[in-house]
Write a structure and sequence with these properties.
This protein has 416 residues and is an alpha/beta fold. The chain has a domain at 69-268 and 312-337 and 364-415: Spore Coat Polysaccharide Biosynthesis Protein SpsA, Chain A, CATH 3.90.550.10. The chain is built from 13 helices and 22 strands. The strands form seven sheets. An eight-stranded mixed sheet has the order 2-22-14-17-13-3-6-7, with helices on both faces. Strands 1-15-16 form a three-stranded antiparallel sheet, with no helix packed on it. α1 packs across α2 (28-39) and α4 crosses α9 (249-257). It is globular and about 75 Å long.
C-alpha cells in the first residue's frame, strides 16, 4: 500500500493520474508491474524535454563550413591497395567487431515482430538478420578470423530476438560469437504532455534512439569486453540496409592510417532526399546540419576538384575506435523530437490505432557525438553498392527496390 500511495503522489505531482485508470481492475501481479514502472520513470526529464521542444530551438548563429570527405571512386588502385592492406591486417588479427542496431519493430513493413525478422524475396527467402550474418561469415572465411557480432535489441524485442536466433541455430555463426544487449527506453507523451497506456498495466515506452548505443555498451560492460578480445575498431550499422558493408578493409585502413578515431560512410544527396541533413562543420566541429541551413548557393557549391561541398548524407554506417567509444559512453547526448503514431488504450480500455502522429518521441542519435572530435573521416561511397534500406512498402526505400540492388550487387561481386 505504501508503494501505491507513493505512485499516486508522484502522478498527482506531474498531473498524470490517468495512468491508474484501470488499476482497480488489475490482478495483483499486473498492479505491481505498473507501480514499479511508474516509480522508475524520470518525470523531471520527460517534462523538461517536453518544455524544451515547445521552444523554437535552432543553430542559426552557427557558422557552417564544409567538412572534407574522401570519394571512394576517385581513389586510384595504388592508393586503395595501401589502405586495404592495412585494414585487412587489422581484420585478420581480430581487431574488428560489428554492432547491428536492431531495436526496432517492423510495423511499417506489416510486421508485429522485430524488423530483423523481415524476409526478403530471395530464393529461398532470407531475413535481414540472415543477410547480415552471411556478410560476416563471408568475411570470416576470407580473412581467416571470427568477427564478434554484437546486436543491440530493445526491451520490447530482446526476448523474441534471442529465441529467434536459437531457433535458427544462430545461422551457423556460433552462439559464442554473438552478444545481445538492450538499449534503453523512454515513455512517449501525447500532444498534451500526457503519458499513454500501452496495456492497462503498462505505460507506453519506446526505444530512445540509436545514440543510446554508447551508454548501453558501457552499462553492459561490453567496451571492456571488446578490449579484452583485442578489438581495435567497431563498426556500427542498422539492420535494414541489406547492402550494408559491415566489413570494409578500405574504410578501416583509411581510418587507421589517417589516425581518425571516428569515421562515417556517406552518399551524395539526390532530389528525393532534399530534406536530409548533410555533413558539415558547425562552428568548426564535425556535425550533421539541417537542410534548412543549406542555401541553394551552398548546395551547388563545389571545390576545385568538382566535389560538392554540402551534399554528403548519413547512411548509418560508422566506425569507432575503442578509445572513441569510451569517450562517447560518457557524453550526455541531446535528444531530438519526433512526432510518431503510437497505439494506446482509450478511456474505455479500447486499443486505438491512430492514422496520424499522436505522440512525441524523444531520441538520441549517434551523429551527435561527432562535434566532440576535432575531425572525423567521411568516405563517400556509391549508393547502388552500399545503400539499400528497407523502410516501408511505399516511397523510395521499398523491399522491391532493395532486392533489385541486392541482386545486382551479388551479380557484380561474382563477376568481380
Amino acid at each position: 500500500m505504501n508503494k501505491y500511495r507513493s505512485v499516486v503522489k508522484l502522478l498527482k505531482k506531474y498531473n498524470q493520474e490517468q495512468v491508474l485508470a484501470f488499476y482497480n481492475t488489475l490482478p495483483k501481479e499486473e498492479k505491481e508491474l505498473l507501480l514499479d514502472q511508474v516509480l522508475n520513470i524520470d518525470f523531471e526529464k520527460l517534462i523538461s524535454l517536453y518544455n524544451e521542444f515547445q521552444k523554437d530551438v535552432s543553430y542559426t548563429d552557427a557558422v557552417i563550413t564544409p567538412l572534407e570527405h574522401v570519394e571512394e571512386t576517385k581513389l586510384s588502385s595504388y592508393i586503395k591497395s595501401k589502405y586495404v592492406k592495412k585494414g585487412e591486417e587489422i581484420i585478420e588479427n581480430g581487431g574488428l567487431a560489428v554492432i547491428t542496431l536492431a531495436g526496432g519493430q517492423g510495423t511499417r513493413l506489416g510486421l508485429s515482430l522485430p524488423k530483423g525478422f523481415f524476409e526478403v524475396e530471395t530464393n529461398p527467402k532470407k531475413s535481414l538478420f540472415q543477410i547480415q550474418c552471411e556478410t560476416l561469415q563471408i568475411a570470416n572465411i576470407k580473412y581467416n578470423t571470427v568477427i564478434h557480432w554484437y546486436i543491440m535489441t530493445s526491451p520490447d524485442n530482446d526476448s523474441i530476438t534471442k529465441v529467434y536466433f536459437e531457433d535458427k541455430k544462430y545461422f551457423g555463426y556460433g552462439k559464442e560469437n554473438v552478444t545481445f544487449f538492450k538499449q534503453d527506453t523512454l515513455p512517449v507523451l501525447d500532444f498534451n504532455s500526457k503519458l499513454i497506456l500501452d496495456k492497462a498495466y503498462k505505460v507506453k515506452e519506446v526505444s530512445n534512439g540509436n545514440g543510446d548505443v554508447f551508454s548501453s555498451l558501457q552499462r553492459y560492460g561490453l567496451i571492456e569486453d571488446m578490449e579484452k578480445k583485442g578489438i581495435k575498431y567497431v563498426f556500427i550499422g542498422g539492420i535494414d540496409n541489406i547492402l550494408l558493408k559491415t566489413v570494409d578493409p578500405l574504410f578501416i585502413g583509411l581510418c587507421d592510417i589517417g589516425n581518425c578515431k571516428v569515421a562515417s560512410k556517406t552518399i551524395t544527396k539526390n532530389e528525393n532526399e532534399k530534406d536530409e541533413w548533410v555533413f558539415a562543420r558547425r562552428d568548426g566541429k564535425p556535425s550533421i546540419v539541417s537542410s534548412k541551413r543549406i542555401t541553394k548557393e551552398m548546395e551547388d557549391k563545389k571545390d576545385e576538384n568538382g566535389k560538392y561541398l554540402y551534399k554528403e548524407i548519413n547512411i548509418l554506417a560508422h566506425l569507432f575506435s575503442i578509445d572513441s567509444l569510451k569517450l562517447c559512453a560518457n557524453i550526455d547526448l541531446p535528444y531530438h523530437l519526433a512526432e510518431k503514431k503510437n497505439d494506446y488504450l482509450n478511456d474505455e480500455g479500447v486499443k486505438i490505432m491512430p492514422k496520424s502522429p499522436n505522440t512525441y518521441k524523444y531520441e538520441q542519435f549517434i551523429f551527435d557525438v561527432f562535434p566532440y572530435f576535432d575531425n572525423i573521416l567521411l568516405l563517400s561511397v556509391k549508393r547502388e553498392r552500399e545503400f539499400a534500406p528497407i523502410k516501408s512498402f511505399t516511397g523510395i526505400h521499398t523491399p522491391e527496390r532493395a532486392l533489385e540492388l541486392y541482386l545486382n550487387e551479388r551479380r557484380n561481386s561474382i563477376k568481380g
